[in-house]
Amino acid sequence: MTQPIDLGGLDTATLLRLHRRMLLIRRFEERMYKLFLQGELPGTLHQYEGQEAVATGVCDVLRPVDWITSTHRPHGHALAKGVSTREAVAELFGKATGCCKGKGGSMHLGDPDVGMLPAIAIVGGGNTVVTGMGLAFRMQRTDQVAVCFFGDGASNEGAFHEGLNFAAVQRLPIVFVCENNLYGASTPFQQVSLVTDVASRASAYGVQAQIVDGMDVVAVRGAAAAAVERVRGGDGPFLLECKTYRYSGHSRGDARRYRSREEEAYWKERDPIDRLAVSLLDAGLATRQQLDDIESSVKDELDDAVDFARQSPEPDLAEAVTDVYATPIGASA
């Protein structure tokens, strides 16, 4: 049975916006997986189904001038931060009209125009890059905030500890968002860590932290709003741990034999999209027809994006040597 959530006093427009954004991410992932199986998408694929509340809730309280770093599982972050659906799909197709001109593909989505650094596929890679962003914001005396999304597996990387410590010492305006989906690829977090919560590690560096239900978009949004306000005000970094779950395997060829179907069923009863929909209906803030209309509009948006990608040109070969930097051998840097 789907568990309802506390709507937190948010207005109907905000709640419907959150619902639509999560639904767009879910349907995007489902559509891209089918296209991948049909051979239309090159490269690999890491899906985000189940974790939609995290990206949606966090990015909903950010401004276009606030920046995020992402991971090898970036589709949800990209759509939540405002990357065009057309350009995201075209990027997965490897087309010139993609948000990274077809050079990044699934694992490197991003768009500086909406405040998203092209995603970093190295586990924990964003945890140190984001400190450069935060330091730049502080030195330029802006009120911008940087957000770093990372998984529980990344919390065992040196970059997590280095980034968190540097951000703490320098009091940088960064929110570190851990999407704890219980597994680093196929390895349970409990097998590689003697602490249950990633958030407990923050205190070693003098950083404030909070754990939130990552399957509740309203709870995530509320916690993220408080964290962003705190770091924007100059109180230094904050670590937000979102307990969530990915429904799919780690990547396209993962049959998920390392976890039970009972475990999967338990988490799917906490589905973030279903929970918000049920709560909206129970509170009389939306009708079934309104939710059906949102579903239809999401389908139309994705149909348009796929058509756009299919009709888009392939990148020109000359583009392979643009947008890169190299120092000639023998030259001084």
CATH secondary-structure class: Alpha Beta
Give the distance, in angstroms, between the N- and C-terminal Cα atoms: 61 Å
CATH architecture name: 3-Layer(aba) Sandwich
Helix fraction bin:
40-55%
| Beta-strand residue fraction | 5-15%
Secondary structure tally: strands: 7
Write the H/E string, N to C.
HHEHHHEHEEEEHEHHH
Whole-angstrom Rg = 20 Å
The description of the largest β-sheet is:
5 strands, parallel
Structural class computed from helices and strand pairing: alpha/beta
What is the arithmetic mean of pLDDT? 95
| CATH topology (level 3) name | Rossmann fold
Number of H- or I-type helical stretches: 10
User: How many domains make up the 3D coordinates?
Assistant: 1
Task: Tell me about this structure.
By secondary structure, the chain is α/β, with parallel strands linked by helices. It has a single domain (15-251, 263-321), classed as Thiamin diphosphate (ThDP)-binding fold, Pyr/PP domains (Rossmann fold, 3-Layer(aba) Sandwich). Helices cover 41% and strands 10% of the residues. The chain is built from 10 helices and 7 strands. The protein has helices at 12-37, 52-59, 75-81, 85-93, 126-139, 158-170, 217-232, 261-268, 272-282, 288-311; strands spanning 67-69, 146-151, 174-180, 183-184, 187-188, 208-213, 238-243. Helix 1 runs antiparallel to helix 3, helix 2 (52-59) packs parallel to helix 7 and helix 4 (85-93) packs across helix 10. The chain is globular and about 60 Å long. The relative contact order is 0.17.
